[in-house]
Amino acid sequence: MHKQLLLKRRHFLIGLGALTGMGTFTTASQLRHLNLLDSDISADPSVALAAEAIALRASARTKGLLFGAAVNYNNLSSDQAYANLVAQQCGILVPANELKWQALRPSPSQFNFTRADWMAQFARRNGMLFRGHTLVWHNGLPNWFAKTVNKQNAEKFLREHISRVAGHYAGQMHSWDVVNEAIDPRGQRGDMLRNTPWLRFLGPDYIDLAFRMAAEADPRAILTYNDFGIEHDTPQAETKRAAVLRLLERLKSRGTPIQALGIQAHLFGHPDGVNFTQIRRFLRNVADLGLEIMITELDVNDQQLPRDPALRDRAVANVYADFLEVVLDQPAVTAVITWGISDRYTWLSSTKPRKDGAGLRPLPFDAQLKPKPAWQSLTSAIAQAPTRPSQPGLPTPTTFADIQGHWAQRYIQALADKNIISGFPDGTFKPNAPVTRAEFAAIVTKAFPKASQNNASIEFVDVSRSFWGYSAIQTAVRRGFLVGYPGRIFQPSQQIPRVQVIVALASGLNLSSDNTSVLSYYQDATQIPTYAMNKVAAATQRQMVVNYPTVRQLNPNRNATRAEVAAFIYQALVDADQAQSINSPYLVQV
Ligand code: G3I
Fold first, then answer.
1. How far does residue 71's CA lie from ligand 1's centre (Å)?
2. Which one of 52, 181, 459, 564 is the catalytic residue?
């Protein structure tokens, strides 16, 4: 159910003929004071959403980036809706606890991979990469560790652990956090190495040793040093950044097989806002060592922020946006991984609860699995990030279980292979499902990323900045593919009729034709709205119209299906010389 706008507004219930975007302008600041509540992106949380419209994994992949999350076995295996969200949104999965010593080692002589194996299979089944956390840490250790491991046997235990665990997943792991949180500026040492059992038993060389053991066990995994508290503009973070950089320089200078730095990014919000300027130089220095950089545990602690959820969500979203703008500007940053994905399950609840008892809201999706402003920040930051060279090992687009033999199968598969559309967590595409105007905006924006933005941007009264489709709608309108209705209304959740799709594509490609006599080809030409005749004629002449099942039946006012949108978009790409023609009996050729 759409939440009501706070401000009464006239509904312009108009026919298709009024596709003009003009009307009294409402400035962005007025919108903010309108305090518009977001239109839900789905009336029913169990309804799978058109992944290409909101999947962070898909938008990240188009930039050669990885988006994913760290989650717990208990939540992933018992909460189906949550598991669907993880599969829909994440291109990489990290067990938050299941690959730590405490979870893997019930006793000094036993290894138990059951839960981590289940998570590895979940990742495989959903076309996700798998990431290991963590082989060497001073926390997450089993109870027997302290009374069993000592200076004499520590190397044996370390070697056996890394060889068994990294060996068990060899070839399956995108990357490992080999050593976690080894720097502690509060310590007395010049190198600021944390006083851990590993340091006490093996000396500072334990770090190099761990990386060499991991490289031996799994030569293909990206071996990572992971740490926290190196993100904000604070003196403590600046001190820690310098110590981490010195550690990385030492490791690289001695030939340690390390390929990446993991920046945990457990950020915190502050009523006065926070800055991320100093990290920019640090990222450049790390990249200059030839290291990849991954954001490995992103979330925003909102303890110090106001209780009001809407205000807190916006402040958290601003921290996501400010941090990601800086880090994604550095091409060496190749992955963004959040620590959890929904406020339904966050480690902060048990460790850093708010004094007022309000639920914490640190993640991109709320406890009802709905996208929040922080999700919009992630989407926008990824959209604006420079494209990376594609990453080896990214899962290739899968074929969809429910399009085999479908009339639009080749159109759908071709667009999926181009990362323009994607399917649902259950591996289907749902070809006969309708498409909303917001979803169409997301697809057409991906299909024509280089189209020039000549039109003015428009702030629609029913599309607030935190709406998941805000940036796609803005882009589609500026590129001339879509217009709104009078009164600055967009109707993002309205199912888009076939004729609107045809008009949108012809408009975006600047096609027009006065020769509307070609429309007589359609047996139902009289149903074509007057406003659309010129554009439909142009699209018809440019072979952009596909009519199933009867090629001479246009059905202009019937809502378009996902399959039909795929066919129309594909034919528009053919017209723009960006795709090879597909010979189809349903293609209108006049
Ligand atoms: O699984 C056992 C359960 O069998 C037992 O009954 C219960 C009783 O204490 O403990 C359960 O293990 C807990 C585990 O989380 C799984 O829920 C541990 O006690 C608890 O200490 C552990 O906390 C984790 C913490 O790391 C320490 O390992 C948090 O969930 C996890 O979010 C947190 O994650 C860390 C990263 O690994 C490193 N970076 C910081 C980040 C946040 O602290």
1. 11
2. 181
CA distance 382 to 157: 41
Determine if ligand 1 sits within 6 Å of the CB of residue 122.
no
CA of 78 relative to ligand 1 center, distance in Å:
18
Q: Scan for tokens 């659309």, then name that residue.
A: 532
For a ligand 1 pocket test, name from 97, 101, 112 the mutation site with the most ligand atoms within 8 angstroms of its C-beta: 97
Which residues does residue 132 pair with via DSSP β-bridges, in sequence order? 176
Let me know: does 360 contact 339? Beta carbons within 8 Å. Answer: no
**If you take atom 13 of ligand 1, which residue's CA is the nearest one?**
97
Contact 540, 381 (CB under 8 A): no
Minimal CA–CA distance to 444: which of 481, 489, 498?
A: 481
| pLDDT tens across the length of the chain (590 residues) | 333 332 223 222 222 222 222 222 223 333 222 222 223 323 333 333 444 456 899 889 888 899 999 999 999 999 999 999 999 899 999 999 999 999 999 999 999 999 999 999 999 888 899 999 999 999 999 999 999 999 999 999 999 999 999 999 988 899 999 999 999 999 889 999 999 999 999 999 999 999 999 999 998 899 999 999 999 999 999 999 999 999 999 999 999 999 999 999 999 999 888 899 999 999 999 999 999 999 999 999 999 999 999 999 999 999 999 999 999 999 999 999 999 999 999 999 999 899 999 999 999 999 999 999 999 999 999 988 998 876 544 444 456 878 888 999 999 988 887 878 877 766 688 999 999 999 999 899 889 987 788 888 899 999 987 677 888 899 999 999 999 999 999 999 999 999 999 999 999 999 999 899 999 999 999 999 999 999 999 999 999 999 999 999 999 999 999 999 999 999 999 999 888 888 899 999 99
Query: Which residue puts its alpha carbon closest to atom 25 of ligand 1?
Result: 140
For residue 349, the CA-to-ligand 1 centroid distance in Å is 12
**112 CA → ligand 1 middle, Å:** 17
Task: Write the Ramachandran bin of 581: left for phi over 0, alpha for psi from -120 to 50, otherwise beta.
Answer: beta
Q: Does residue 96 have its Cβ closer than 6 Å to ligand 1?
A: yes
Q: How far is CA 498 from CA 37, 73, 126, 356, in A?
A: 29, 43, 32, 51
Centroid of ligand 1 to alpha carbon of 340 (angstroms): 13
Distance CA 230, CA 232 (A): 6
Residue nearest atom 4 in ligand 1 by C-alpha distance: 103
CA dist., res. 309 & res. 302, Å (int) = 10
Q: Which two tokens stand for residue 464?
A: 């607030």
The single residue listed with the structure tokens 């708010």 is 354
Q: Exactly one of 98, 231, 292, 297 is catalytic; which is it?
A: 297
Q: How far apart are CA 225 and CA 227, in angstroms?
A: 7
Q: Is 296 in the pocket of ligand 1 (CB under 6 A)?
A: no
266 has which bridge partners?
A: 299
297 has catalytic annotation = yes
Q: Is the CB of 204 under 6 A from ligand 1?
A: no
Closest C-alpha residue for ligand 1 atom 2 = 103
Please tell me if the CB atom of residue 471 comes closer than 6 angstroms to any atom of ligand 1: no
The rounded distance, in Å, linking the Cα atoms of 257 and 203 is 19
Show the tokens assigned to 497: 């009729």
